[in-house]
């Protein structure tokens, strides 16, 4: 299946191009370590003093090109 550039740039949703485990494989791994979910596993392994109570506010998603342009602008000011 061929996707257009604009379809690949869809920043509103995760594009299924990741080669990682599927939902069944994730659940199998969680069962193996005795965790109910990825959030529960993270809560068990990340020290409490560095866990965030709320998700970080990182702003709207941008394309790789836009992110690089912003980083170059920041770097040019230093």
UniProtKB/TrEMBL annotation:
Species the sequence originates in: Escherichia coli
Domain Glycine cleavage system P-protein N-terminal residue range list: 16-77
EC numbers on record: 1.4.4.2
InterPro entries, sorted: GDC-P_N, PyrdxlP-dep_Trfase
Domain of life: Bacteria
Protein's UniProt name: Glycine dehydrogenase
GO molecular function, one term: glycine dehydrogenase (decarboxylating) activity
Origin organism lineage: Bacteria, Pseudomonadati, Pseudomonadota, Gammaproteobacteria, Enterobacterales
A Pfam family that the UniProt record links to this protein: GDC-P
Keywords in alphabetical order: Oxidoreductase
């Amino acid at each position: 299946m061929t996707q257009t550039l604009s379809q690949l740039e869809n920043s509103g949703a995760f594009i299924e191009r990741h080669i990682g485990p599927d939902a069944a494989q994730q659940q199998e791994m969680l069962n193996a370590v005795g965790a109910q979910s990825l959030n529960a596993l993270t809560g068990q392994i990340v020290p409490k003093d560095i866990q965030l109570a709320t998700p970080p506010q990182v702003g709207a998603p941008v394309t790789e090109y836009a992110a690089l342009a912003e980083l170059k602008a920041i770097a040019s000011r230093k």
